Amino acid sequence: MPKVQVLNINGSNVSEVELNPEIFDIENVNEHAVYLVVKNILANKRQGTKSAKTRAEVRGGGRKPYRQKGTGRARQGSIRSPQFKGGGVVFAPKPRSFAYTTPKKVRRLALKSVLTSKARDNEIFVLDGLKFEEAKTKNMVAMLNAIKSTEKALVATDGPCEDVKRAGHNLKHVKVVDVRNINVYDLLKYDSFVISTDALKVLEEVFN
């Protein structure tokens, strides 16, 4: 059973906590499940708003540009055919949704796989509490430096903690998120995973 030191926001050791092995120490890390979920997340992020006109939608081209025979050139029916400048687009893209769903079992397996990798690489930092007296950026920076976290950090809270969220808002490489909304893509994108003990309990309840 993996164990992690519990720190306070000043970086001092407070206690030790045992991580749930069913979440943070699974036997086989499934990289393919992680790939499937990341691909799904990125597909769902696509706007799908690109659009172009087909030859039926562009303006003009009502008559033949020149007669059928006798010119020495290939016969043409419209100057708005795809081969002409200003013509329509072949198989023109249209607005569409790229969203789809991945099975729940695959999503859970991928999340467990990434959390296990984070635990084995010592990239999980557990705090006894995550609150600031003032919601200022310098407080977030001081906390991350104190616990010796990397610059790119995903900070998980046990609810909508506005003071923590505001403190990390101006930091380009820091994201504050409710632990119920963490996903595989964010865990991979950020090097460190900072979580409070309360949020850790919520995370374990989510998997039950």
Automatic annotation (TrEMBL):
GO CC annotation: ribosome
Region (Disordered): 48-78
Top-level taxon: Bacteria
Keywords: Ribonucleoprotein, Ribosomal protein, RNA-binding, rRNA-binding
Pfam family, one: Ribosomal_L4
Biased composition (Basic residues): 61-72
Physiological role: One of the primary rRNA binding proteins, this protein initially binds near the 5'-end of the 23S rRNA. It is important during the early stages of 50S assembly. It makes multiple contacts with different domains of the 23S rRNA in the assembled 50S subunit and ribosome. Forms part of the polypeptide exit tunnel.
Subunit structure: Part of the 50S ribosomal subunit.
Protein family per UniProt: Belongs to the universal ribosomal protein uL4 family.
Protein name: Large ribosomal subunit protein uL4
Organism (species): Peptoniphilus equinus
Gene name of the record: rplD
